[in-house]
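Dear colleagues,

As part of the handover before I leave the project, I'm documenting each prediction I ran so the next person doesn't have to rerun anything. This entry is a single chain, and its sequence is reproduced below.
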Amino acid sequence: MTKHKPLRAWVEEWRALCEPKAVHWCDGSQAEYDRLSNEMVASGAATRLDGARWPNCLLFRSDPSDVARVEERTFICSTIREDAGPTNNWMEPAEMKALMRKSYQGCMQGRTLYVIPYSMGPIGSPIANIGVEITDSPYVVVNMHIMTRVGTKVLEVLGEHGEFVRAMHSVGAPLAPGQKDVAWPCNPDIQKKFITHFPDTREIWSYGSGYGGNALLGKKCHALRIASVQARDEGWLAEHMLIIKLTNPAGKSIYVAAAFPSQCGKTNFAMMEPTLPGWKVQTIGDDICWMKRAADGRWHAINPEAGFFGVAPGTSLKSNPNAMRTIQRNTIFTNCVLTPDNGVWWEDLGAPPAQGVDWQGKEWSPASGKKGAHPNARFTAPARQCPVIAPEWEDPAGVPISAILFGGRRASVVPLVTEARDWQHGVFMGSIMGSEMTAAAFGTIGVLRRDPMAMLPFCGYHMGDYFAHWLKVGRESRAEDLPRIYYVNWFRKSAEGQWLWPGFGDNARVLKWIFERVERGGSAVETPIGRLPAAGALDFSGLDMSAEEQAELFSVDPAAWRAELPGIREHYAKLGERLPAALREELSALERKLQG
């Protein structure tokens, strides 16, 4: 319990509305985790995997209606509608709260209300932030144990008067007296699901879903949508970025942050095994980055999460061996195949089992022609288990960021790596980034989807104001204290449709050039779109690539780039008058350079 009177009053308010059978304040202990895990196994909600091969691992299967984030049911309820911007769903806050309170009335009958005090970031760090999530899902509790720092120590730091983000969650499935629970309680009606943010009051209200970012409210909801507004108000950055430590053969290290949209190899990059001898990449974080200016003027970053919530399909010893080594123990799997020997499998993991149980709990075999794991099947694993986790990943002071990478999936036009001329130009590059679609779920396959700074679904306010905040950060910092900005594209193809770049561990070759540029070495040439590696500056040693293929990786076709301009203008037009004039100027400057 806590002496924080506003917190206790807030919990009591929700207890009275939701009518749970019991209230439990989470202490974050291993005993608590084990007790809830055992209870879920006993109830049939979870399957315990083979203890010899998968020690302390659990498998869950969600309801088929509850398998991913539901962006169409995600709202930013700012007091002023225009502040939410055209890229977010909006409803007037009082109206939304009145609507949702009707759903919350009695929603926890027959269930336990869990109070989860959590810290995003190392407890007590000046860059960290505290939240408290209320939930009626033990699945959420055990996942939050892994993804955040939970428990009594958080309440101690919060004290009697500390500020905290208020996060309210319910699966929306009350139990009548004597009613048997289901393995995955949720509200299957998509119209009854809400993931709502009230940025002005630092609140999150979620109802109806028990899955991922819809329910683990410390993740996208707090760490990005609410934190982005806090960052704007307080002068820091809350970003959808991985963080790595890059060390050269001489033992010199820098820290790099990178923002990539989905389907662009973010986790693989964060846990890379470089192919260049003597170079080393270590992980600070794989998804979210909070940056604040330190006393030395430089921008220091923490990974606010304590775990990895990764997509399982496509993860293998070939694509990401360090992720595979991370998830071998103490991991929660969701919507994967259960093998006959009580293990897990998913597509691309390796040879499939002859038979198994698919993510919907049905008998399955490869001969069925159906996928056994859901495409969004997940693993939740402690970051401390990653074999390449950097020793300073939990340093309360954070790590100084020397370079920021933006990038997307583009088959043509965009070179392998481009350096921004300055901070403003780098913000322009990040503001127009996008990827060509690889899955119909996101839109028409092959069509370019703009995703500025990989924040389109996660920015808690108007995207034009978000760009303005980035520009303000640049104006208020000395140029030498700011990270250098780069745009990368691992996915360029030849005229014959073949990948030009091997990717994976060979991406370290690009990092090597960036390292050299940061250290005031490494040669570059000016182009209309920015600075590219000069001839011979990028290390191609050992790669089976012709001179023509190498040249194609860096080719800048003015005609192709001029063809991009109308799409950029259309993208900017959606932001109206809140688009910063500086970005319009950058676009005009690009057009002039392409004509020259």
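The chain has three domains: 5-45+71-235, 239-306+391-595, 307-385. The CA atoms of residues 254 and 515 lie 7 Å apart.

All the best with the project,
I.
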